[in-house]
Design a protein that fits this description.
The complex is a heterodimer of chains A (276) and B (665).
Chain A: H1 4-25, E1 31-34, E2 61-69, E3 72-79, E4 100-107, E5 126-127, E6 136-140, H2 145-155, E7 163-164, E8 168-172, E9 175-181, H3 182-185, E10 193-200, E11 238-239, H4 249-257, E12 267-268
Parallel strand pairs in A: 5-12, 6-7
Antiparallel strand pairs in A: 1-2, 2-3, 3-9, 4-6, 4-10, 8-9, 10-11
Chain B: H1 6-30, H2 36-40, E1 43-56, E2 80-94, E3 97-105, E4 141-150, E5 159-164, E6 187-195, E7 201-209, E8 237-248, E9 251-265, E10 299-316, E11 320-333, H3 341-344, E12 356-367, E13 375-384, E14 409-413, E15 429-432, E16 436-447, E17 450-461, E18 522-535, E19 541-554, E20 565-581, E21 584-603, E22 607-626, E23 629-643, E24 650-664
Parallel strand pairs in B: 14-15
Antiparallel strand pairs in B: 1-2, 1-24, 2-3, 3-4, 4-5, 5-6, 6-7, 7-8, 8-9, 9-10, 10-11, 11-12, 12-13, 13-16, 16-17, 17-18, 18-19, 19-20, 20-21, 21-22, 22-23, 23-24
The chains are: A alpha+beta (276), B mainly beta (665).
């Protein structure tokens, strides 16, 4: 009996397998960016909110891994404490954790004139250098895709097109894991620059803030402390700094980068270029 | 009195506007925002309007599927739409002080309640006056959540808080985080601080005003108790403390404890109102020794409880985590001040009615992806004493065990004080795990787009009245559920949380609080398989599938095999969901249940029956987020057939829906 469709299926499967093997073979080695422990204090003096849900070291960035998975890219962000879900995220269509919100900024050209020097709304008085302007940002949030995309539409303006909502986001141990379509991010290049900003998820954000929790002068039950009651301060808790090798000196590099003066000096979010 | 002339009137108007204009300019100038930002940033205002609509094909009216289980509350029912509003205020009093409050309307007014003033005239009978339905139907604003938090800048003290707290600094075994609807009703005095290098030690202490309506015998600290003529609750306090020591980056230990004390007036004190001895004379007219008025009233303890836990969290390397907890519970009841609700209230009572003490322990091991293939392994051993009770512990929205348990969803809590109330049909349920002894194994395979979870749990029960290994001739020790151990009246049958009614008029099965049975020799096997997969179709199509099997066996009395319960519960559930636009998600859900229960319920005298329950549910779910507003809608249809051997068969054909609109800013 002539069954040409069987041959067609076999050929298709073989071709698909070859394409997948080729894609995996072409995959870049993982990018690993480390950050020292105990620098989860923004510019050096920030304090956690006083509500017990914000456990010590739960915003302390330790490591960012970017892993090429063929058609997808996996982002794995490791923090200093086990990721918990004190606000039952499944009740609000969330991703299995409640507190952390990590934004990973990517500079794909390292040139002046392209990308954004301002961060997404809600990070306060921070800027990227002109030649470190970001082109993509990956949002690792406990909020579901529906909420994230709605927030971006409402608040991100022109940055919306550069923001990537992962296919899936989950927590595992001390790590947040997000899977991003490579077609959204682009083929990873060793010359790209990276910055990971650790913030806290705020389901009822203030004003135009994009799901971020403010930093006030005094820590409150659900407000970080040590900053300014306005939004001239950098509203970030931990970032990558220096060469992102995890060396102790990178804590000082972070504090220096995030130093600010209201009305005259923005804090800077430095890109890390591991391939340079 | 003469009428003003038009001319005079005209001139007056000119003069008035001239002066008013100058005043307005001056006012604008004086109140110009010269440094407005400094003042404005001292306030944070959050507003929220929440509207809910319930509809069901029955004739009950109200806004909540299950409201107050005891008192008629005028808000429970399955048909109605209503709205609440709340305003949250946070103020930075100074750089060292934050204060806050929440103004929230009472939920319960239906949109049809146009003119309800809040009055409850006419003996509570609803009529056309607009003054009949009471405050629960008038959306009055209530002050909630007031607090002042001070940062004293003193060594060892991070903050002092006076006012509301959700008690989340303690744990579900001692004083639990307050359920959402009560989240800032709890008030007290709190302090927190740290000491040691790198904040190694952190403490929380709290003096908490005990809620007069749930911590204690008969869910009260005296009110409504038949043993008391004049309940006294204004000096009832709980005392709680937690001390955490972060030994190093990998080891944390914590001790948490609480003590509750419900005081009542000593009626033998001659100074007490309604004293038994107002004149310090006995029935024969003789002076009672030691009795003398002193214008001070003595107190006696009606009920006191202690719950204490010690837990350790140990990480070994990058992947292994060990979490262990041991706990001790003790309670004392004064039977002269606390009525026996086990005997008087058909076993519906939140305590064992006697002085009691017991232990509890859990040990959980987690290996997070040890083979680097996305496979996480977890195992847990649990052993909770038969008389343990976290009377002030978490009542819902917490979970102390790894297993999904029998009723699923909400988890397990070691208390008889569960709160499966003030909920809607789509809310999760919690069950009591008092007396549970067993273990859980859980495998989670995470492969990017696909996640598989497989659970197996075995439970036997410290509440069994006879060993599962009992041999013929062994003596059974029936539990006294008439006077000591509350059985919550309904002890048998798999619990139908989807079609539950408090009074059990529809044979809904066991009360989730019913952990004691007169005769019990029970064990349970639970197997659960969950699959999640995301298909890259359109914006991503999520498939969630679940299969669950429960094998529940209770030999009950040793005197016969005629009462042996064998329950085989099968559940299968599938959900497909996908975003169809930015901020718009839709889902389709289907679930099938079959419960084969031999000797499901009955008595030795009347006999038992073999019952089969079948359920089929389909549901449509959608939510839209648009410009800060969230709209959601859930429509469900349930067919339920109950084929009962001893009683008549039953059939349900339920259509019900829930819609919500939430705008927060």
């Amino acid at each position: 009996m002539n069954r040409p469709y069987l041959s067609w299926i076999a050929v298709s499967l073989a071709a698909a397998s070859l394409i997948r093997v080729a894609a995996l073979a072409a995959a870049e080695p993982p990018i690993v960016l480390a950050d020292p422990a105990d620098d989860d204090r923004g510019p050096g003096n920030y304090k956690y909110p006083t509500d017990p849900a914000y456990k010590a070291k739960s915003f302390d960035l330790r490591k960012v891994e970017v892993i090429d998975k063929g058609d997808d890219v996996e982002f794995r962000v490791t923090l200093g404490a086990a990721i918990e879900d004190p606000w039952n995220s499944k009740d609000w269509d969330g991703n299995g954790f409640s507190l952390q919100f990590v934004q990973i900024y990517v500079d794909t050209d390292h040139q002046k004139g392209g990308g954004f020097t301002e961060a997404l709304p809600g990070l306060g008085g921070v800027r990227f250098a002109d030649d470190e302007a970001w082109d993509r940002v990956v949002l690792i949030s406990p909020q579901g895709k529906t909420r994230l995309s709605a927030e971006l539409r409402a608040k991100a303006g022109a940055m919306r097109g550069a923001a990537i909502v992962p296919k899936s986001t989950r927590a595992s141990g001390k790590s947040l894991i997000a899977i991003v379509k490579k077609s959204d991010l682009g083929q990873i290049n060793s010359k790209w620059g990276w910055q990971a900003v650790v913030q806290s998820n705020e389901g009822f954000p203030v004003g135009k803030d994009l799901l971020t929790r403010p930093v006030n002068e005094t820590a409150g039950p659900h407000r970080f402390g040590g900053g300014n009651d306005g939004d001239c301060d950098p509203q970030v808790i931990d970032i990558l700094a220096g060469k992102a090798k995890g060396e102790a000196s990178e804590a000082k590099a972070q504090y220096d980068a995030l130093a600010y003066t209201c009305g005259s000096k923005f804090a800077r979010l430095p890109m890390v270029y591991p391939g340079q | 009195m003469s009428q003003p002339s038009p001319a005079r009137n005209h001139l007056s108007r000119q003069a008035f506007f001239g002066r008013a204009g100058l005043c307005l300019l001056a006012a604008v100038w004086l109140t110009r925002p010269t440094d407005a930002s400094a003042d404005i940033t001292k306030f944070e205002l959050d507003g929220k309007i929440f509207t809910k609509q319930l509809y069901q094909n029955d004739d009950s009216q109200g806004l909540m599927t299950l409201g107050n289980p005891f008192w008629p509350d005028k808000i429970s029912g399955h048909n109605g739409v209503g709205t609440e509003f709340e305003l949250g205020i946070r103020g930075h009093v100074s750089s060292l002080v934050e204060a806050g409050a929440r103004l929230s309307s009472r939920f319960g007014e239906r949109w049809q309640d146009w003119w309800e003033s809040g009055a409850s005239d006419f003996s509570g009978v609803e009529n056309t006056s607009g003054d009949s339905a009471g405050m629960n139907r008038a959306s009055y604003m209530k002050l909630r959540g007031t607090y002042v938090q001070i940062t004293p800048q003193a060594y060892g003290i991070d903050w002092l808080r006076i006012g509301s707290s959700d008690f989340s600094m303690f744990n579900p075994w001692t004083i639990g985080k307050v359920r959402y609807i009560d989240r800032d009703n709890g008030r007290g005095y709190f302090a927190s601080g740290h000491f040691g290098s790198n904040e190694a030690f952190q403490y929380h202490i709290g003096l908490i005003a005990m809620p007069k309506l749930f911590v204690g015998p008969s869910w009260s600290t005296g009110l409504g108790d038949p043993m008391l003529t004049q309940a006294f609750w204004s000096r009832d306090w709980a005392y709680a403390a937690s001390l955490r020591w972060r030994v190093n980056d990998h080891t944390t230990v914590r001790a948490v404890a609480d003590l509750t004390q419900d005081l009542e007036v000593d009626k033998n004190d001659p100074d007490a109102v309604g004293s038994n001895n107002p004149n310090c004379l006995d029935k024969l007219g003789n002076t009672i020794a030691g009795c003398a008025p002193d214008h001070a009233v003595d107190m006696k303890t009606r009920y006191a409880s202690f719950n204490g836990t010690f837990d350790i969290d140990q990480e070994i390397g990058e992947t292994i985590r060990i979490q262990g907890l041991i706990g001790y519970f003790q309670q004392q009841i004064d039977p002269t001040l606390a009525g026996n609700g086990v005997a008087l209230n058909q076993g519906v009572f939140p305590l064992v009615y006697k002085d009691a003490h017991d232990f509890a322990g859990t040990l959980r091991l987690t290996a997070t992806d040890p083979f680097d293939i996305g496979l996480t392994l977890q195992g847990e051993y649990f052993n909770i004493g038969s008389e343990w009770n976290s009377i002030f512990g978490a009542r819902r929205e917490s979970d102390v065990l790894l297993t999904e348990g029998l009723v699923g969803g909400g988890g397990q809590l070691p208390t008889l004080n569960l709160a499966n109330e003030f909920i809607d049909f789509d809310d999760d349920w919690v069950e009591s795990c008092i007396g549970w002894h067993g273990g859980t194994g859980l495998l989670t395979l995470d492969r990017g787009d696909t996640q598989i979870k497989a659970e197996y749990t075995f439970i036997t029960y410290n509440t069994n009245t006879v060993s599962l290994n009992a041999k013929k001739g062994d003596v059974d020790h029936p539990r006294d559920v008439d006077k000591i151990y509350p059985d919550f009246l309904h002890t048998d049958g798999f619990t139908d949380t989807a079609l539950y009614d408090y009074a059990n008029t529809s044979d809904r099965g066991r009360d989730p609080r019913s952990v004691y049975r007169r005769n019990q020799a029970r064990y349970t096997n639970i197997g659960v398989l969950n699959l999640h997969h995301q298909f890259m179709v359109g914006r991503g199509l999520d498939l969630d599938a679940k299969a669950k099997y429960i094998n529940d066996v209770d030999y009950r009395s040793l005197t016969t095999t005629e009462d042996d319960y064998h329950g085989n519960i099968y559940q299968a559930r599938v959900k497909l969901s996908t975003p169809i636009a930015d901020g718009w998600k839709v889902g389709l859900i289907g679930q099938l249940d079959q419960w084969n229960e031999l000797n499901r319920k009955g008595t030795l005298e009347l006999g038992y029956g073999d019952d089969v329950t079948k359920k089929a549910m389909v549901a449509l779910q959608t939510s839209v987020l648009f410009a800060g507003v969230k709209l959601s809608y859930y429509l469900e249809h349930i067919d339920k057939w109950q084929d009962r051997q001893r009683d008549g068969n039953q059939y349900w054909n339920i259509w019900r829906s829930k819609a919500t609109v939430e705008a927060a800013w």
